[in-house]
């Protein structure tokens, strides 16, 4: 999955872009206290990293 696809999936689930630090974008949710870091690199996100991000976001 590409970064843009993941960002769209997060935004559809209610997450919004908060800030960027280095090569990672951070997303927040109005109803959840945690932040979800998303690497901002070229190419596809590795499967394990993708699963971890989706799990942190409560999507998977």
From TrEMBL:
Signal peptide (residue range): none
Superkingdom, natural source: Bacteria
Name of a matching Pfam family: HicA_toxin
UniProt keyword list: Endonuclease, Hydrolase, Nuclease, RNA-binding, Stress response, Toxin-antitoxin system
MF GO annotations: endonuclease activity; hydrolase activity; mRNA binding
Family: Belongs to the HicA mRNA interferase family.
PANTHER family: ADDICTION MODULE TOXIN, HICA FAMILY (PTHR34873:SF3), SSR1766 PROTEIN (PTHR34873)
Name by which UniProt lists this protein: Addiction module toxin, HicA family
